[in-house]
Amino acid sequence: MILNKEYYQALWNKFENTTTLNVFNSNASCLTTKLILEHYKKNQPIHINFQNSKESIFEIGQHLFVELANDIYKNHYDLPTLGKGSKLRDKRKYSDGKRHDYVIKSINNGIFLLEHTKNKAQINLKYDDLVRKFIPIEQGTKQSTLQGYTKFFTDLNNGLKLDFTPTNFEKKTVFIAKKPLWDSLPNRNKIPCAYLPNPREENNTTETRSIPALQDCLAYFTPKYNVCYSNILSKNEKVKTIIVFDTEANQIGQMLQDKAKFGFNLIIVSNSISPLKNQSIPCWNWFKEELEIVNAL
Q: What's the whole-model pTM score?
């Protein structure tokens, strides 16, 4: 432990140019998140431990959720697979202000025949035009829900406009975290994510999606690593990063074995007087006295 203000000031200055999407309540949370993001960008593992700071780790978890979701949204989206019977929401504005949904009736020589679900009007489109003008949906939903999703990421990225609305993702983020973090997530209804319960401990054993109308999600939350393994990794879903959030310390060894097999990065955030460390992951162990210095910068 180094109790030297100049050291922490230099550390703060080192990460000054690491940008974040939101404002933090404390310097310690901000610096820790930046440290994690630098390792995330380089696909390097890291373990961050706090001695006793539940508020800080919750703030970091909430910020990491938005940061990593945004990375998946911008850099790991995938084109949707569409077939006969797929449902679509027209993104174009109509004079009646209502939503307009279509169903794919047939596909011939790369041309998609769409039929309006109410007035039965039909149009023919090539795939490129279709994904630009329509959003694939699993079920009917309010227009404001889909608009809230696209607006959130557009505003988050200073007006970012993509050729189509991402609804499918070729890589995911997984949080191994207890349910209180899921319950506390900011803007969860604007970010496609899912909670996978532990069937041995929770009454509700069905998956909960934040935006059920969308085909896919970009982040998963589950309290147990074995749920992640059986429902995500073993089903060949590609995972960019697993964040272990103050739980499942006894599973770290297994995760490291699987890390080599499945190719994901591993980030650990814990809140323990005596954290369980592993020589394969560098551990940054914050002490109370250090946090006080950083927060006073």
A: 0.93
